[in-house]
Amino acid sequence: MAAAGADTERRQIDFRAEGEVGEYFKKLVFPAIIVLLLILLLGYAGWTYGFRFLIPRLMASSFFIAGMLIGAVLQLILLIIFTRWRFYNHVLSRSIRANEKTLQEIDRIAREAADRLAMRPPGVYVVQDPQINAYALGFRRKVIVLNTGLIDVTSDDELKFIIGHELAHVKYGWSVPVKIFGLTIKLPLLLSSQHREYTCDRGGLIACRNLNAAILVLARLALGKRLADKVDIESMYKDKDEVERDRMSKISEFIATHPPIKNRVYQLRQFHESELYHKLIR
């Protein structure tokens, strides 16, 4: 009974990285500035030429412009959906699903990772591809795809970190929870979120429970297998000063889809020492 209670408590714990909401709104600043400039421009034109002259002409063309914009947006959405659906089916058609009879070891690792994240394991597929990569696919039916190039160079713990990372993507989906007047509203994650990658790295670490294996995976993403195996994992980006000295420009880091590897390594170390991590793995 006590074990069941502990499992329930663990299932209710959130390992989302702090700062995701702040980053989300920062990335909305630029579009907001563009909209504000357009409003100011229209206001200036109205003030200069007279609103009686300007407004009828704007209204006459507004329906045409609105129709064009709505049509373009709908076409873009349909194109994105079709492209993703086509890619989803293309990948699954040339891959093999891991299960208890086929690719049993990968199936076992995936189930252990899902259990440690208190999730139902989604389908895990293996596709012939030399690139060191893995990704989550799908809308309602989400799956995880592992390239053979990745499996060939990773140990069980390293693979568990990667699967845990992708499971965290599945767990949190493509939305950001924002509290407004005490209510939690999920806003769509329209822009890439670096903090989401920190969250998913946390999921990978909870799944594998091996900090060195997790860091080695990140090192291989940056350097490849041969060079990464020569890196001193124990001391790699262990203190904040080293991370700051090796920093790119803030703008470059801000607009990138993924945070720099050094930041991910440092954040993993910080999470590994945190009370939350030790509470989750009990």
TrEMBL record:
Gene Ontology MF terms in the entry: metal ion binding; metalloendopeptidase activity
Localisation per UniProt entry: Cell membrane
Location (main, coarse): membrane
Superkingdom classification of source: Archaea
Keywords assigned: Cell membrane, Hydrolase, Membrane, Metal-binding, Metalloprotease, Protease, Transmembrane, Transmembrane helix, Zinc
Alphabetized CDD domains for the sequence: M48_Ste24p_like
GO CC term (a single one): plasma membrane
Bilayer topology annotation: Multi-pass membrane protein
Cofactor: Zn(2+)
One example of a Gene Ontology biological process annotation: proteolysis
Membrane-spanning ranges: 28-51, 63-85
Co-factor: note: Binds 1 zinc ion per subunit.
Domain Peptidase M48: 103-172, 189-270
Family designation: Belongs to the peptidase M48 family.
Entry protein name: Predicted peptidase (M48 family)
